Amino acid sequence: MSEERQEMASKQQINTELLMEALYSEKIDDFRAEFLELHPYDQAAFFGELKDEERAKVYNFLSPEEMADLFENLESDEEDFKDVLAQMNPNYAADMLSNMYADDAVDVLNELDKDQVVSYLTIMNEEAAQEIKDLLHYEEYTAGSIMTTEFIAISANQTVRSAMYILKKEAPQAETIYYIFVVDEDKRLAGVISLRDLIVSDDETMIGEVMNDRVVSVSVGEDQEEVARMMRDYNFLALPVVDFQNHLLGIITVDDIMDVMEEEASDDYSKLAGIADLDTIDRNPLTAAKKRLPWLIILLFLGMFTASLIGRFEDTLDKVAILAIFIPLIAGMAGNTGTQALAVAVRGIATGDLEKESKWNIILREAGTGLITGAVCGILITFVVYFWKGELFLGALVGISIFITLIIATLAGSLVPLLMHRLKIDPAVASGPFITTINDIISILIYFGIATAFMSYLTK
């Protein structure tokens, strides 16, 4: 279903008029009867449209536990959690955070100032606060920072009957029960059993006999992008997270990975566009300008370098002024080709496809691509310039310049992100505007270098 249809379906399920009437009339029972029938996503959608004074009424109508279900479905890129929590009574907010899944509560707390985090953890119930503290100390964007500790673990040395008893007892607090992980007496990950296998097994069968001991896991320090790739490759609903001694610390569920994939895609697109952050739509022009200015200022100085480079060939332009006509053409072709190669390389790194390929194979393939595209475009522009201006040598000069430029631009667009990836730098930093400007400089050097070398043929 498309996003637009989902939004329409959501709105159709929410009786906004009835809810607003109950809200303003202080009809708590009517509001709760209608509101609590909604899916938490629809509850969050309704809440997101309310004004501050209307939200204050909702806090009076819902318990912290009920508010927790709603809060887990709020979009972080649409809500400022800091402002929303500030509207609540501190004890109410702390109770709400206590009732959220620990990983979701950590996502909210990561948006707050450190003194606010300490304040909420202090008044939270001790067990929930400790779970959240355990997650907060993990480095951001790692497996540890997105895992949840609400999972079910059983022992290999127990029967299916006793495992089912544990499952029924702990299921209400677990984030998912489709996979049940098996640990040994030292809490090390020993295996995994699916809910289906557990249900169909004989009650007296030992867990060790029916579990799968070839379980895939990730290290707590693994980058979240790599975790997302693993879950995509293996089609898992949940992935166990372990420390260096294979102790089971938590699990990462597929809904968390969907958020990671959206976050990583937005981050990469931001960098490719040369913008600091595209997670939110900035309605404040000043905020939007602050995010865009850093790259633009860097590119401005690079552009000045390009201009000064052209100035160095002033004598060549004075003698053959017609050369200026083709500067935008050659620079534009270099930028376009480099951006195409960059997009392919960044995507290949993100999906892991380029990891499986030899670096020499990549270089040879990109060189071949540049050679073919350069040859075709170079021959085509040679004849276009000849028929347009009636000068075969000028056409050949422009054609050769494009031929060499496209080869180098293609190699630069693909090899620069590969080099950055090898140096442990995000390859998306080799943004479209950046690679375009670099290729502009290269193309100008090639074009005017060839023109200057063969000046005698152009001035005849």
- Compute the average pLDDT: 81
Overall structural class, as computed from helix and strand content, comes to mainly alpha
Task: Please tally the helical runs, counting DSSP H or I stretches of 4 or more residues.
Answer: 24
Number of discrete domains? 3
Measured distance between first and last alpha carbons: 67 Å
Please provide the ordered H/E string of secondary-structure elements.
HHHHHHHHHHHHEHEEHHEHEEHHHHHHHH
Helix percent band: 55-70%
CATH superfamily of the largest domain: SLC41 divalent cation transporters, integral membrane domain
Q: Order of strands across the widest beta sheet?
A: 1-2-3
Cα-based radius of gyration, to the nearest Å: 30 Å
Task: Set down the secondary structure blueprint.
Elements: H1 3-13, H2 16-24, H3 28-35, H4 40-48, H5 52-61, H6 64-71, H7 81-87, H8 90-99, H9 102-109, H10 114-123, H11 126-136, H12 143-146, E1 153-155, H13 160-170, E2 179-183, E3 189-194, H14 195-200, H15 207-210, E4 218-219, H16 224-234, E5 238-242, E6 248-253, H17 254-272, H18 285-312, H19 314-319, H20 327-351, H21 359-389, H22 392-422, H23 432-453, H24 455-458
Parallel strand pairs: 1-2, 4-5
Antiparallel strand pairs: 2-3, 5-6
Keywords:
Tetracycline Repressor, domain 2, Mg_transptr_MgtE_intracell_dom, elongated, MgtE_N_sf, single chain, 460 residues, transport, three-stranded mixed beta sheet, 66% helix, CBS-domain, 24 helices, mainly alpha, cell membrane
